[in-house]
Each structure stands twice: as C-alpha cells, then as structure tokens.
Amino acid sequence: MPKSIASSLKRPLSQAVSLRSFSWALSFTWLLGSAFYFFETILEILPANIVQEMLHTFKLSSAETGILDSAYFVTYALLQIPGGLLLSHLGPKRVLTAASLTCAIGLLLFATAHNFTVAIFARFIMGLGGSFGLMGAVFLACRCLPTRYLGFFVGLTIMLGLSGGLVQTPLHDLIIAFNWRNTVLILAALSAGIALLMAFFIQDNAITKENLHSLSWRHLYEDIKKVAKNRAIWPVAIYGGLMYLPTGTLSSLWGIEYLKTYYPSVDMRFLTTINAAFFLGWIIGSPLSGFISDFIHQRKPLLTLSSAGVLVCMLAVTYVDNLSLGVMGLLFLLMGVFSSGSGLTFAMAAELYPRQHQGPAIGLVNMLAILPSILCAPIFGYILDNVAHAPGTPIGAYTREGFTHAMILEYGIIVIALLMALWWIKETLPESSSI
User: Fold this and answer.
1) What is the reported pLDDT for 388?
2) For an engineered disulfide with 62, which of 327, 384, 411, 423 has Cβ 3.0 to 4.6 Å away?
3) For the chain, the helix, strand and coil percentages under 3-state DSSP, each to the nearest 5
4) pLDDT of the chain along its 435 residues, tens only?
5) Best CA proximity match to 47, nearest among 27, 33, 32, 67
6) Cβ contacts of residue 200 below 8 Å, gap of 6+?
7) Cα–Cα dist 156/159, whole Å
8) Could you give the 3-state DSSP secondary structure of residue 394?
9) How far apart are CA 79 and CA 272, in angstroms?
10) CA torsion 140→171→251→330, rounded to 10°?
C-alpha cells in the first residue's frame, strides 16, 4: 500500500473536515459505508424476488410470507435509536464490521433453512446487521468528508444506498442461473467481503474515544424522554411510517407478483425492472423534494402533494385496465417520487429540537417509519390468502382481483396520511426565516 494512503488511513477520521484533508483513502472509507447501505437495501428487496420460492420451499401461506418479510424489519426498527449510541461508544470499525458479519451469518442461515421457524430467525439476524446500514453510512460521511459540503454528501450517501433497489433484474438473473439458495449464499459471501474491507480500512476516530465516558444509556433514556414529550413529533413520525407503507409492502415484497397478474405473458425480467422503478423514484425524489421545500420554505405542502400523488398513482395502477409496460413503469416511478416526500419528516424532526436532541428525534422517526410495514405486510398477505385462493387453487397462484382487495388497505392508510398532512401536522419552518 502506498505510504500516502496508509498515512491517511491512520489519521483520525475527525480530522477530515476540510477540503485540504480530503483524500481518496478517506473517501474510500465513506464509500465502504455506502456500499454496506447499498447491500442492506438489496436485503430489503430480496423477498420480492423469491416470493414463489419461499411459498413452496417453506410451505407458506401469503400471510406467513408477509410475516417472514416483516421479521427483518423488527430488529431493524428496534435498533434505530440505540444504534447511533453504539457507533459513538464502540466506533464505526467494530460496529460496522460486526454488522456486516451479522448479515452474512443471517444470509447463510437463510440459505440453508428448511422450515419457517429457522427462516424467520435468519431474517431477524439479517435485520440486526442491516439496521446499521443507513446510520453507519451517514456516520462515516460526517467524519470522512468535508463539513462544508456535508449536506450534499449525506444526500449522495442516501442516493447511493437506495440504488440497491435498482438491482432487481440482475438479482432475478442470478436466481434463475444459480437458484435462490445459491444466490443467497453469494450475497452472504459479499457481506463477509464487505466486513473484511471494513475491518482493514475503517479507523475509529479520536472524537469517539474521547467521548466514550461522557455517554451512557441513562443519558440516552433522558434524551428519548425529552423527545417523546414534544407532541409535534408524533404526527410527523406517524405520517412518515404511513407513507413508507407502499414501499415496504408493494415494492419490497408483492410488487412483482402483482405485475405478474397484470401482465401474465410478459418476461419476469421486464417486471422486475418496472418494480425497480419504484426505488428509482425514491432516488430522484429525495433530493428534489428537499430542494423544493427549502426553496418555498415550507414542508407541509410537499407532504400533502406526496400523499395525494401516491394515492392517485396507486388507484391508476390498480383500476385502470390495459396499461402499457411503459405507462406502468412511469406510474411505479411516480409512486417512488411521491413516496420520497416522506423523507422530509427527518428534516422536520431535526427542526423541532435543539441540536443535542436531534439524534434521538431522527431515530424515533426512522423507527416509526418501519413499524406500519411490519404490521401490515402479514395483513396484506392474509387478504390475498382469503380472496385470491378458491378451494384447490395452487399456492402462489394470485389473481388481480385478490390484489385489488388487498390494496384497499394501502388506500386507507394513504388517505389517513393525507388527512394528517392537511390538518394534524404543524409546519416546522419558522415564518420569519428567510429562504
């Protein structure tokens, strides 16, 4: 290794705060964190690409398939708030290396599972490691990159991570070529490889070590109490969770299966591409909604537009007949763009609190963003089981009618989010502030 790179890697990450200290070595450290976030997004969309395989391998109902998918997000949600404390206490090297190895173990267990119980346990383990994807990448961005451009780099980090949702077609090709178990084993090897790179390249920074004794679980508990007492945070957090539901249940799990009922003769590769357009919409819409809301200096109008836009697109996808593949792809893209407006809830959470309480506030919003998907994915599957399956119908033989009934759950949730944006959520940007 060249001496210049080696010396840069040994330098504390806390020194990476200006353009002078920016180096390819430090940017590579940040890219490792973003790569793990990218990989974690693939873990989220994995079930959507192997629904039929899970149904037949583990002899599942649709409701049980929803439970299996949700198992990942249970541990993911529970670790959102304490995860940041672990990064500060132990440093990114230990935590992110362990997180990536945990994902590898979960994937290995999932690939070798032969019953529903072991498969659920494997998804729990994957969620345990994957919970550090977003927060770890942002943590490294804050310490490896110039602070003057931190807003841009954090946005870029999120875009890079969410790009994992665009690999659905290559993932489908891998499953066809190697079968689903071997594909999951390949993912386990990739996760272990990321862990090795993290163990070698990531260096814990001096600030983390200096603050080790100033942080405690008691302090975290006190911060959470102060955050929870602010009534304005709850509508914001609940709205974010309701608006993430179409992403969590449709694009991440049932989207491809629905498209198969709409286009029964179309090749699966095209359908996975359409489903991936949902994530492309998130990638486009996340920075766009932030820019527009900053420009008009208001958050609420964007929240209202987002929920209304998602509702209209979902109704069109469900009830309009004879949509071309191009139009369907555009609608999935627009659903992602409008859904991404819920990302403003993180900025709103930060604006409701002083700096010392912003971390727990953002963690609370991120945790509640996952909970509705955890609860509704099994319900969605239960509706499919009881509508799509006549006596003697094979497992996994869904109908468009069945999805039409199941999607009513989604419409109701988005209507509630729209009403919240109109009447319950308060604007967080002060009127006196300038753009």
Assistant:
1) 52
2) 384
3) 85, 0, 15
4) 434 333 433 444 444 344 444 466 677 888 899 999 999 999 988 887 888 888 888 888 877 887 888 889 888 888 877 776 677 667 788 889 999 999 999 999 999 999 999 999 999 999 999 988 888 887 777 677 665 555 566 667 777 888 887 787 888 889 999 999 999 999 999 999 999 999 988 876 533 444 444 556 666 677 677 777 778 888 888 898 898 888 878 877 788 888 888 888 888 888 888 888 898 898 888 778 877 877 787 888 889 999 999 999 999 999 988 889 999 999 999 999 999 888 778 777 767 776 556 556 666 777 777 788 778 877 887 787 776 554 555 555 677 888 888 888 888 889 999 999 898 888 776 653 433
5) 67
6) none
7) 5
8) coil
9) 30
10) 100
Question: For 324, how many CA atoms within 13 A lie in the half-sphere containing its CB?
Answer: 3
Query: How does 149-161 read in b/e, with b if 16+ C-beta sit within 10 Å?
Result: eeeebebbbbebb
Q: Please give the single-letter amino acid code of residue 424.
A: W
Is 435 buried (19+), middle (13-18) or exposed (0-12) by CB count in 10 A? exposed
Distance CA 102, CA 49 (A): 22
Check: CB of residue 273 under 8 Å from CB of residue 400. no
Query: Which residue type, as a one-letter code, is found at position 194?
Result: I
Q: Are 345 and 247 in contact (CB under 8 A)?
A: no
Residue from 99, 289, 91, 305 nearest 204 by CA: 91
Structural domains in the chain, CATH included, are 10-210 (1.20.1250.20), 216-428 (1.20.1250.20)
Amino acid at 376: C
- Using an 8 Å Cβ cutoff, are 143 and 205 in contact? yes
What is the chain's length? 435
Whole-prediction pTM value?
A: 0.73
DSSP readout, 104-135?
A: HHHHHHHHT--SHHHHHHHHHHHHHHHTTHHH
